[in-house]
Amino acid sequence: MRLALYTGIILAGGYTSLPPALAADPTGDWRVADGVANIRVAQCNGSMWGAVSWEKKPGGRDENNPDVSKKNRPTLAMPTLIDMKKKPGADQWEGQVYNAQDGQTYSATITPVGTDQLEIKGCVMGFLCGGETWTRVGPPIPLSPANAMAKGAPKPAGAAPKAAGAQGTQAAQQGAAGTTGATPPAPAAPAPKTAAAPKPAQKGAADPVGDICLLPEIAGFAH
């Protein structure tokens, strides 16, 4: 059985090999064996997850999914590696893999091989195993902020007193003038308007997938 998985983004600046210390890190963007897509792997709430982050032919749909409600979902950002847990004492993670080519989910493992390859193996009913090797196209991904519970800032004890308006200030000046007999000073002339600052140049197109831990199908499962 060959896992023809559908999956990331090739970084515009290119990619260089990682130091040996990161050899066992499966996170990052990986190009699948046949080159039709990349998978972005990240740690979400203690498990490794993977989702399609780039497609050679954009606009794919999960048409082979046995769930009728998912047949029209885009394959871009679709989860492929599902809830993979690290095996004790080994640089290997095990969980499930979804194969969009046949719409089936298999038991699977992922194992980093050196710094630039990720070996994935899947089995049906514990046998008929097959696999392939993916090639790294992006550096490891830091732990997602989505894994930490957001803490709201404490509310202030009370509202700050409102500043006196222009009319209140003018009345106070007139009252002071009536007491001392002095003529109140004329109001200061408004400062001349300055030219608006130029807007920064528009940045390039945003990453269409971003943090995969925030994707609804992953966030809803992992939290």
Automatic annotation (TrEMBL):
<feature type="signal peptide">
    <location>
        <begin position="1"/>
        <end position="23"/>
    </location>
</feature>
<protein>
    <recommendedName>
        <fullName>DUF2147 domain-containing protein</fullName>
    </recommendedName>
</protein>
<feature type="compositionally biased region" description="Low complexity">
    <location>
        <begin position="150"/>
        <end position="183"/>
    </location>
</feature>
<feature type="region of interest" description="Disordered">
    <location>
        <begin position="147"/>
        <end position="206"/>
    </location>
</feature>
<feature type="domain" description="DUF2147">
    <location>
        <begin position="28"/>
        <end position="136"/>
    </location>
</feature>
<dbReference type="Pfam" id="PF09917">
    <property type="entry name" value="DUF2147"/>
</dbReference>
<feature type="compositionally biased region" description="Basic and acidic residues">
    <location>
        <begin position="54"/>
        <end position="70"/>
    </location>
</feature>
<feature type="region of interest" description="Disordered">
    <location>
        <begin position="54"/>
        <end position="73"/>
    </location>
</feature>
<keyword id="KW-0732">Signal</keyword>
<feature type="compositionally biased region" description="Low complexity">
    <location>
        <begin position="191"/>
        <end position="206"/>
    </location>
</feature>
<dbReference type="InterPro" id="IPR019223">
    <property type="entry name" value="DUF2147"/>
</dbReference>
